[in-house]
Amino acid sequence: MKEASRILGVSVRRLQIWNKQGKIRCVRTPGGRRRIPESELKRILGVKEADVSRRAVIYARVSSYDQKQKGDLERQKRSLLDHAKSKGYEVVATLEDVASGLNENRKSLSKLSDMVERRKIGVVIVAFKDRLTRFGFRYLERYFTSQGVRIEVVNGEEPKDVYQELVEDLIALVSSFAGKLYGLRSHKYRRVMDGVKQLIAG
Questions:
Q1: In the CATH hierarchy, which fold is given to the domain comprising 160-201?
Q2: How far apart are CA 36 and CA 5, in angstroms?
Q3: Architecture of the CATH domain 55-153
């Protein structure tokens, strides 16, 4: 707020009043502090921003290196690039991850989030919803939308061969919970995991 006050030449109190009146948009950090987006400063100062609505990022993901070696990742990227070209988008980045959809610490997903927060793009293109996240897609979509970025899902239904990936994600999820409840080396943990694997195999 102090930096925005200096740039705009008004007091912090005036900025707070403007925020309440809806004249300027503020966002809050997880710690509860107010921040004024750079885009708001440019709007008030009359600085025109470049239209980023047609700037796209392609995000592709497979869950294993075996899938990558089979060419699944490359096919996914080519399909998304063809889609972007047909829509007339300017593709500014092609990001990829080889990781589970449950993994929140994916390197390229973090890069994508940074680009969304900086508002340098207008659209994220994915093959299926679960390429971004196995659970909580709507929350992620809502957050991207709040940053002026839309998610474009090319395919409505998951392919039939996604079964093995779902199994791997389920096992990883059960393993995580069972490990926290019983400890990774406990007899109960092994019993739970053996039971899940037998259930899936049966």
A1: Helix Hairpins (1.10.287)
A2: 10
A3: 3-Layer(aba) Sandwich (3.40)
